[in-house]
């Protein structure tokens, strides 16, 4: 068996695959402040689900922010891992948008899955999952609710600030003016979609485009992004583990090279 | 990842001593009542030396403070006074120093000299210094240059007339006499140092590259504030000899050079280890437009005109297309595999063409590039994990291509 662990800024993901790259099990746990601990927890969980133990692991590759801090035989960057993971599941994809906890990325790949170009958000949190987390907490609701409520919006407001802190006060001011919460939420997601779309335009959209990362689980956000791009993204069944999958695929390759 | 041995040139190691000597000479000049000028870079340093005015560049000081982890105190000092964090960090550092007693490396100025030839901050910064310190101020104007070589005569005349005004001011304010012969000698030395530096940079075309980013970032210093001095020429002679020797022995900055990179922007002085980060992964910087910017050939037979041309032709005062052309030329000449573009919060005049450049590199040259945002001197604007993460991904892309 081969393991990929993606120690992300918000969540740590572990995946187990077999030598043909088929998914066996996976687990997603919050990263917290200790990557070593969260990665062990995720891996234990995945192993348990698959009725395996650590002796079954032939090679493991770590990726994500915490990759250097966890126990794995080798490391690889998220850009390469996401591309590899997407190429495996959605071979027609040529553009990938990945929105995670701390980063958003746009990647162009060729027909072989090789990275041609990529771009990441600048230093600030706007346009990342963190932005949505902050807004969900301001609105006192679980983050999953944002996506659902978005779909009920009839008249989205315009959020003009892309700064997380200023956008938060803008949200509070809209709510206090009696604007419906779903319209505020839709406005927020539109603002991020716009930011991500603009970023992606810099490397150019090539069809088909895939959407991955934790934020791809939000139906409302997917709608906002599709509207902005003018196309419906390809989304894997579990978009949050694609980077980990890419790492596990790299583990197969590394093992063969040994 | 295996740590690689990377070699700094032994001449580069002498730069600290040279800088310290330069600043102690400044304090000596102050003790002897010779005037000290605070200048922005790309101002007529040669003319000031000829007038026996000692030039110091607060921009260089800001870079040094940042490299030694001392910038934050001065930055905060300026911010306390109301200077916004959005302002250039060199200017905040210089103003913070001016506002906190000026007891460090730079002696207080007797004269403030700047030209509007690189960025708008210069003028406001120098006006603010003038406001705080009440020191005589000279602000020169240099019209933007649209074509590379042919300057309109009236543009050059205009700048030369302003240089003559500096000469008059020096006489009126400080009783200093101008000596043309002295200037001729200084311009000769300045040209010589530039020529040596250009020749040295040319040798980076060799594989393996004999001079890396950590060298070039330090070695520019004599051309920033010591143009026209004997010491600068001696330094570059020694440097060139050492680099030639490396080329002869086929000795590179790193063993097993994997990637040859271009770095665009001012260096991140507070995060200098980033260069080593690349070197440890087999990537060496072989060209930087910033290092190239300091070499300017002069004609000692026309000293004032030559200084005027130098002021006008600095990289930030010329048409952006010319800058981009030069940038792209280097891709082939230096066999560049990838470009690292530093979008500097403090220096928009430098960072502006980067998006366009990245686009051309990608489409026309098939050269990957990576852009990151930070600040040259303000360590608070630097997200280390995020930036290194991007570099890792970039290096992986390079390994696959």
Question: Can you offer a commentary on this structure?
Answer:
- The complex is a heterodimer of chains A (258) and B (401).
- Helix content of chain A is 41%, strand content 19%.
- With 258 residues, chain A is an alpha/beta fold.
- Chain A has 2 domains: 1-90 and 239-258, ATPase, nucleotide binding domain (Nucleotidyltransferase, domain 5); 94-235, 2-Layer Sandwich (Nucleotidyltransferase, domain 5), CATH 3.30.420.40.
- In chain A, the strands form 2 sheets. In chain A, strands 3-2-1-4-5 form a 5-stranded mixed beta sheet. In chain A, strands 8-7-6-9 form a 4-stranded mixed beta sheet.
- The longest helix of chain A is centred in the C-terminal third of the chain and has 21 residues, at 181-201.
- The radius of gyration of chain A is 18 Å and the shape is globular.
- Chain B folds into 2 domains: 13-177, Rossmann fold (3-Layer(aba) Sandwich); 182-400, Rossmann fold (3-Layer(aba) Sandwich), CATH 3.40.50.11900.
- In chain B, the strands form 2 sheets. A 4-stranded parallel beta sheet of chain B has the order 2-1-3-4, sandwiched between helices. A 4-stranded parallel beta sheet of chain B has the order 6-5-7-8, sandwiched between helices.
- The model of chain B has no long low-confidence stretch (mean pLDDT 94).
């Amino acid at each position: 068996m081969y393991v990929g662990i993606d120690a992300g800024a918000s969540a740590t993901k572990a995946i187990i695959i077999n030598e043909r790259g088929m998914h066996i099990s996976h687990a997603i746990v919050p990263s917290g402040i200790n990557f070593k601990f969260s990665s062990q927890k995720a891996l234990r969980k995945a192993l348990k689900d698959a009725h395996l133990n650590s002796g079954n692991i032939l090679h493991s590759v770590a990726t994500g922010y915490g990759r250097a801090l966890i126990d794995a035989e080798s490391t690889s960057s998220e850009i390469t891992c996401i591309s590899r993971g997407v190429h495996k599941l959605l071979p027609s994809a040529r553009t990938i948008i990945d929105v995670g906890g701390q980063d958003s990325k746009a990647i162009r790949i060729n027909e072989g899955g090789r990275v041609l170009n990529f771009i990441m958000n600048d230093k600030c949190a706007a346009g990342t999952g963190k932005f949505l987390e902050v807004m969900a907490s301001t609105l006192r609701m679980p983050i999953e609710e944002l996506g659902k409520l978005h779909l009920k919006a009839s008249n989205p407001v315009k959020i003009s600030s892309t700064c997380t802190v200023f956008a938060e006060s803008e949200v509070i001011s809209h709510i206090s003016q009696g604007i419906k919460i779903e319209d505020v939420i839709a406005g927020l997601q539109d603002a991020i979609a716009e930011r991500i779309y603009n970023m992606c335009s810099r490397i150019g959209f090539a069809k088909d485009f895939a959407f991955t990362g934790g934020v791809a689980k939000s139906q409302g956000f997917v709608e906002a992004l599709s509207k902005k791009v003018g196309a419906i993204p390809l989304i894997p069944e579990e978009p949050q583990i694609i980077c980990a999958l890419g790492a596990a695929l790299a583990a197969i390759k590394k093992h063969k090279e040994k | 990842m295996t740590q690689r041995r990377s070699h700094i040139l032994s001449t580069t190691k002498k730069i600290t001593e040279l800088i310290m000597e330069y600043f102690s000479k400044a304090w000596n000049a102050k003790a002897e009542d010779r005037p000290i000028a605070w200048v922005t870079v790309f101002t007529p340093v040669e003319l000031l030396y000829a007038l026996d005015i000692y030039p110091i560049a607060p921009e260089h000081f800001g870079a040094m403070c940042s490299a030694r982890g001392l910038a934050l105190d001065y930055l905060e000092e300026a911010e306390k006074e109301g200077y916004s964090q959005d302002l250039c960090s060199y200017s905040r550092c210089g103003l913070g120093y001016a506002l906190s007693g000026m007891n460090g490396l730079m002696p207080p100025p007797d004269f403030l000299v700047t030209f509007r030839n690189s960025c708008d901050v210069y003028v406001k910064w120098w006006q603010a210094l003038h406001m705080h310190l009440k020191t005589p101020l000279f602000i020169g104007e240099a019209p933007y240059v649209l074509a590379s070589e042919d300057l309109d005569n009236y543009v050059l005349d205009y700048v030369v007339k302003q240089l003559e005004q500096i000469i008059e001011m020096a006489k009126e304010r400080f009783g200093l006499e101008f000596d043309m012969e002295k200037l001729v000698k200084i311009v000769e030395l300045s040209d010589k140092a530039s020529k040596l530096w250009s020749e040295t940079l040319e040798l980076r075309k060799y594989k393996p590259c004999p001079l890396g980013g950590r060298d070039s970032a330090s070695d520019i210093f004599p051309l920033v504030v010591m143009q026209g001095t004997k010491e600068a020429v001696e330094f570059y002679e020694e440097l060139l000899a050492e680099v030639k020797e490396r080329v002869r022995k086929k000795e590179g900055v790193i063993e097993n050079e994997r990637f040859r990179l271009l770095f665009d922007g001012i260096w991140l002085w507070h995060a200098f280890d980033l260069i080593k980060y690349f070197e440890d992964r087999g990537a060496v910087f072989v060209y930087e437009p910033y290092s190239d910017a300091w070499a300017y050939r002069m004609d000692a037979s026309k000293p004032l005109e030559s200084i005027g041309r130098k002021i006008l032709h600095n990289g930030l005062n010329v048409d952006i297309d010319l800058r981009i052309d030069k940038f792209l030329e280097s891709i082939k000449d230096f066999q560049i595999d990838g470009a690292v573009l530093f979008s500097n919060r403090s220096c928009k005049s430098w960072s502006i063409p980067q998006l366009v450049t990245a686009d051309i590199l990608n489409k026309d040259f098939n050269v990957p590039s990576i852009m990151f945002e930070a600040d040259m001197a303000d360590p608070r604007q630097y997200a280390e994990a995020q930036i290194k993460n991007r570099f890792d991904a970039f290096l992986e892309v390079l390994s696959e291509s």
